[in-house]
Specification:
globular; single chain; alpha/beta; two-stranded antiparallel sheet; about 45% helix; binds flavin mononucleotide
Length: about 375
């Protein structure tokens, strides 16, 4: 609580250090657009198909308005939450984003340093540009989860999960909406595939099981093996049992949009759900996550945590998502734009902005804690 107040006082956009940095995600995106070549920029910013879901992830937030409460003495407020017995400073996390070296040469290592400094948990992607062990080394005991892309060779999945557990990751996030890659027109136009270019090999080229499958371990052979494994249309609920045998860590499924799938997740003993449409990068035409959230929160009924990503850009967005039933939110592109423009400093600044916006939004909505946020402060437009 004291920390929050201090931050609010210290937080200023008029000192020399921060003045030159953008103050909104739109500004960060614009700067990233100026810096990055078309291939990487469009890969990051773009969505699949006609990008309808990419757009509706944002419009969904403007369909809800905050109806703030007054006269509530918000002097002693806190943004802190607890997730899987871990005390977190805020309900904001960094979503798994692969191949971050396409945005900045330091990639995930810069992101990891900023996350650690801000006390914001980082979810590390299977297709990261640095290995999960290298990223863990940077983070020390700072909170981190590992995101798993299933492999057809499930012993590779098992190996990665065990490595993650050994490297201090405290939860496994199984992404279930990417059984194959979404149809991304911008990438076709640009002829750009960072996966094929080998930008996401770090966790595979260091994996003893995956390497044992190759006659010769070369980057090219590893890429071919990744491509064989990453297309995994057979993924189904029975695979959760296999995953459960590999680890004692909490298992979350990322990419749930249908309340019936949320029910199945609970029935299969999953420990958490991330309501996500991959930032509009997979099934175009899919429901926005904020629209999907209330029905999922209702089905889950507090049995396991429900997180949300896709389209979160402001402190007010975080308030809305939590008021509609999310325990926490994750951001993807916003921190990646920060990374592209200013490396670690950029990620730090994006987080600083969002956290302070959340603090102000909670105060001005009359909320002393995350637990105070509920539908009573929302109106449907
Ligand atoms: C460039 C990029 C790469 C991504 N890579 C992964 C990934 O490796 N694994 C994963 O589960 N999700 C991945 N995602 C999806 C994010 O985890 C997250 O769901 C999405 O970015 C949230 O939407 P937002 O960008 O609107 O915040 C990626 C997203 C972007 C933009």
């Amino acid at each position: 609580m004291a920390e929050t107040k201090k931050e609010a006082l210290l937080f200023t956009r008029v000192n020399k250090d921060t003045q030159s940095l953008p103050v909104s995600i739109e500004d960060w995106e614009q700067k990233a657009r100026e810096i990055l070549p078309d291939g990487p920029f469009d890969y990051i910013a773009g969505g699949s198909g006609a990008e309808e879901t990419l757009a509706s992830n944002r419009t969904a937030f403007s369909k809800w308005a905050i109806v703030p409460r007054m006269m509530r003495d918000v002097t002693n407020r806190t943004m802190s939450i607890s997730l899987y017995n871990q005390a977190l400073r805020t309900p904001i996390m960094l979503a798994p984003v692969g191949m971050q070296a396409i945005a900045h040469p330091e990639g995930e290592l810069a992101t990891a340093r900023a996350a650690k400094e801000a006390g914001v948990p980082l979810v590390v992607s299977t297709v990261s540009a640095h290995s999960m062990e290298q990223i863990a080394e940077v983070m020390g005991d700072a909170p981190r989860w590992f995101q798993l892309y299933w492999s057809n060779d499930r012993e590779v999945s098992a190996s990665m999960v065990k490595r993650a557990e050994a490297a201090g990751y405290s939860a496994i996030v199984l992404t279930v909406d990417t059984i194959m890659l979404g149809w991304k027109r911008r990438d076709f136009r640009n002829g750009y595939s960072p996966l094929r270019e080998g930008k996401g090999v770090a966790n595979y080229i260091t994996d003893p099981v995956l390497c044992s499958r190759l006659t010769e371990v070369t980057p090219e052979n590893v890429v071919e093996e990744i491509l064989k494994n990453i297309y995994h249309p057979a993924l189904n609920w029975n695979d959760i049992a296999f995953l459960r045998e590999q680890t004692s860590l909490p298992i979350l499924v990322k990419g749930i949009l249908h309340p019936d799938d949320a029910r199945l997740a609970v029935e299969h003993g999953v420990d958490g759900i991330i309501v996500s449409n991959h930032g509009g990068r997979q099934m175009d035409g899919a429901i926005s996550t904020l629209e999907a959230l209330p029905a999922i929160a209702k089905v889950v009924a507090g049995k396991i945590p429900v997180l949300l990503d896709s389209g979160v850009r402001t402190g007010a967005d975080v308030v809305k998502a939590i008021a509609l039933g999310a325990n926490a939110v994750l951001i993807g592109r916003p921190f990646l734009f920060g990374l592209a423009v200013a490396g670690e400093k950029g990620v730090a600044s994006v987080l600083d902005t969002l956290i302070n916006e959340l603090d102000v939004a909670m105060a001005l909505s009359g909320s002393n804690s995350v637990a105070d946020l509920n539908e009573s402060i929302l109106a449907r437009m």
